[in-house]
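hiii, so i know i said id send this last week but things got crazy w the move. better late than never?? heres the sequnce for the chain we talked about at the cafe, plus the structure i predicted for it. fair warning i was half asleep when i ran it
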Amino acid sequence: MGENRKENRQIKFRVSDLEFQNLEQAATNLGMSVPSFCKKKAQGVKMRPPKIDREGAFEIAKELRAIGVNVNQLARKANEDKNVSVLEVQAVQKELHELWQQFNSAIQR
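okay and structure toks below
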């Protein structure tokens, strides 16, 4: 077993249920397995959780798509020589600004 593995030594240790729960939560917060987390911790690697979680990233992407649809509608309207009001453009600008603020706040955590 493990003859072709780069790391051929194995370390085993026991922890209490509470200690395991704490390790599991810390590993999950970093998107890692418990063994990987323990190995990195033992090696002294500094680990920080992602500033934007997966769900937050999907939400921001969803909002960007919606804004993109609005911009495309305004561009189509302008290309058809129809009037695009300043209010319509300002509404899209406001959406973009609010999303930027949300994103900026999320990455600063």
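btw The radius of gyration is 24 Å. thought thatd interest u
miss u guys!!
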